[in-house]
């Protein structure tokens, strides 16, 4: 498919940070299928700020502004889709399970020169397919899938890089010497309990530790700081995604759970150690060239974190900081 056939594409993704970052290989492949294509990515506002004008979306817009909820009503006015008629292709990783939504978008796809794909944003349970590959598979109607997922990389902007350098300098920390820990996750079940001890051990070995937290992780941050003795000044709270990307770029290693911030660390090129307990890294591991996974017993086990012991995590983190041990452990 060429750009003359498909000049503008709208890609709709309703997911959170990690899910959307796993879509970057598919967005890169879309550009290869149609060189010069103008990709408009509709996502949550916080993610639009991160991805707008990136290598993966010429524009990133607020998903809610599209008012797609109107398309889930069986009797929706056909005018509800008219604002989407200016696109030559629409890839919606939203609404695959809703017949009314598929019908309304399908009406656009019946127009000459317009291609519409409506597909799941995640693999079917038990499909044994990595989420990034699943999203690449959904683009098959537009062209042959790649032999391997395209490598992806996000970069922080100059302003955020200056901010990160200043933040570290204020704390007496040199770029490239810091271990960044993210002890939180979207679900308490995905939180490895060993972060306070890991923070103490890494600090005792001379590797300075910084912790990052999100808006809903105040308790996790307080628990880590209190149990590990980490100074409050080294807990970075409620940073923007662009600031986090810049901080991760300056870390010697990142250690986190199966969470969106682990995906962000991986995609900016930080050596990243990601810990999996109840979730499956074969489906959800971050994409990146400098990622190592340590996995536990998994869902259904009496202790999903069995095997993710402190010594194993510590060794993997130190190996990553020294530039080795990429893979799955």
Write a brief caption for the model.
The chain contains 12 helices and 12 strands. It is α/β, with parallel strands linked by helices.
Explained architecture:
- The protein is α/β, with parallel strands linked by helices and 329 residues long.
- The protein folds into 2 domains: 8-142, Rossmann fold, CATH 3.40.50.2000; 158-328, 3-Layer(aba) Sandwich (Rossmann fold), CATH 3.40.50.
- It has 12 helices and 12 strands.
- It has helices at residues 17-21, 24-33, 45-51, 99-109, 131-138, 158-170, 195-204, 218-228, 241-249, 260-267, 281-284, 310-321, and strands at residues 8-12, 38-43, 59-62, 89-92, 115-118, 178-182, 209-213, 235-237, 251-257, 272-276, 291-295, 327-328.
- The strands form 2 sheets. A 7-stranded parallel beta sheet has the order 8-7-6-9-10-11-12, with helices on both faces. Strands 3-2-1-4-5 form a 5-stranded parallel beta sheet, sandwiched between helices.
- Helix 2 runs parallel beside helix 5, helix 6 (158-170) packs across helix 9 and helix 7 crosses helix 8 (218-228).
- The longest helix has 13 residues, at 158-170.
- The chain starts with 7 loop residues before the first strand and ends with a strand.
- The model is unreliable at 1-5 and 324-329 (pLDDT under 50).
Give the amount of beta strand, in percent: 15-25%
- CATH names the topology of the largest domain as Rossmann fold
Give the distance, in angstroms, between the N- and C-terminal Cα atoms: 40 Å
Q: Specify the overall morphology.
A: elongated
CATH class of the largest domain: Alpha Beta
Helix/strand/pairing category:
alpha/beta
Tally of domains: 2
- The strand line-up of the biggest sheet is 8-7-6-9-10-11-12
CATH architecture name of the largest domain? 3-Layer(aba) Sandwich
Could you spell the SSE succession in H and E letters? EHHEHEEHEHHEHEHEHEHEHEHE
CATH superfamily of the largest domain: Glycogen Phosphorylase B
């Amino acid at each position: 498919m060429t750009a003359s056939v498909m000049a503008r594409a709208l890609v709709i993704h309703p997911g959170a940070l990690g899910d959307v970052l796993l879509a970057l290989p598919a967005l890169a492949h879309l550009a290869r299928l149609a060189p010069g294509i103008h990709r408009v990515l509709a996502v949550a506002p916080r993610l639009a700020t991160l991805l707008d004008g990136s290598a993966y979306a010429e524009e990133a817009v607020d998903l809610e502004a599209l008012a797609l909820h109107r398309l889930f009503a069986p009797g929706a006015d056909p005018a509800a889709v008219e604002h989407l008629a200016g696109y030559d292709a629409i890839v919606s990783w939203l609404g695959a399970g809703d017949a009314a939504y598929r019908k309304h978008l399908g009406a656009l796809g019946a127009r000459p020169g317009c291609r519409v794909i409506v597909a799941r944003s995640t693999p079917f349970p038990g499909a044994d397919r990595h989420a990034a590959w699943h999203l690449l598979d959904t683009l098959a109607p537009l062209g042959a899938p790649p032999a391997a997922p395209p490598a992806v990389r996000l970069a922080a902007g100059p302003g955020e890089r200056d901010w990160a350098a200043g933040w570290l300098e204020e704390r007496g920390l040199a770029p490239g010497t810091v271990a960044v820990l993210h002890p939180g996750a979207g679900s308490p079940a995905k939180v490895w309990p060993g972060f306070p001890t890991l923070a103490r051990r890494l600090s005792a070995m001379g590797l300075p530790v910084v912790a990052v937290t999100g808006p809903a992780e105040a308790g996790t941050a307080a628990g880590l700081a209190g149990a590990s003795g980490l100074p409050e000044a080294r807990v970075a709270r409620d940073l923007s995604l662009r600031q986090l990307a810049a901080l991760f770029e300056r870390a010697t290693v990142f250690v986190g759970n199966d969470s969106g911030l682990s995906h962000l660390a991986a995609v900016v090129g930080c050596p990243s150690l990601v810990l999996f307990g109840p979730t499956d890294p074969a489906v959800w591991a971050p994409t990146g060239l400098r990622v190592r996974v340590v996995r536990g017993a998994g869902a259904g086990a009496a202790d999903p974190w069995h095997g993710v012991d402190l010594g194993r995590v510590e060794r993997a983190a130190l190996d990553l900081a020294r530039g080795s041990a990429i893979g799955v452990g």
